[in-house]
Amino acid sequence: MSVKINYDAIVSQLKNELKTDCAIANRYGIILSSNIDTIPKGKVIPQKILELIGKKEAIAKELDLNQISSFAFETEEFNFLFTISKELILISKVNLSINLAQFMPSIRVFAQKLSDIKQEQEIKSFSVFDFSKDIDKIEGTLEKEIISKEKYSIIKDLIKFISS
After folding, report:
1. What is the mean pLDDT of residues 10-20?
2. What's the CA gap between 18 and 92, in Å, rounded?
3. Which of 2-16, 46-60, 70-84 bottoms out in mean pLDDT, i.e. has the lowest?
């Protein structure tokens, strides 16, 4: 049995080490953990941002790039950095004084490692489903249907005989 990933502890550790607020979302945009006040846990990343993330391959192709792994949005007070991996989206709320060129590679590597751990956890927790009970139920239902069909076929034959 696999251990569930504690995203709250990871977000807390990121805040301590990177000195920035962070949030972690799954690939569908649901926030798994957050210490960013405008992006609370359990909510969904805004639809327009999810659409942009969903179009990252097309944008990369337009720009003649192999891939895009991060998007940054600059506001008046800070930057929002969306780092996208296969399984997770890491959102960082970064001060304007931080050099994003130095910050982004380390956060990208972290997001990829976290995504790999999540993928391994999903594979470990996979279990084989036993279909034998469902097959037995289906067979039982079919037998009942055949029996009731035979009962009604006698009545149908009688009706056909009487009406002819």
Report:
1. 82
2. 10
3. 2-16
Count other C-beta atoms under 10 Å from residue 119's C-beta. 14
C-beta separation of 75 from 1 below 8 A: no
Domain ranges in the chain are 7-124, 128-164
Prediction pTM value? 0.64
Single-letter residue type at 35: N
CA dist 22 and 93 (Å) reads: 6
Contacts of 40 (CB under 8 A, 6+ apart): 31, 34
Tell me if 119 sits within 8 A of 2, measured CB to CB: no
What the block records as the tokens of 124 is: 């470990």
Model confidence at 92: pLDDT above 80: yes
User: May I ask the CATH architecture of the domain 7-124?
Assistant: 2-Layer Sandwich (3.30)
pLDDT of residue 150 exceeding 70: no
**Cα separation, 39 vs 24, whole angstroms:** 10
Q: Looking at this protein, which amino acid is placed at residue 7?
A: Y
Report the b/e string of 137-154 with b at 16+ CB within 10 A: eeeeeeeeeeeeeeeeee
Rounded average pLDDT over 3-17: 80
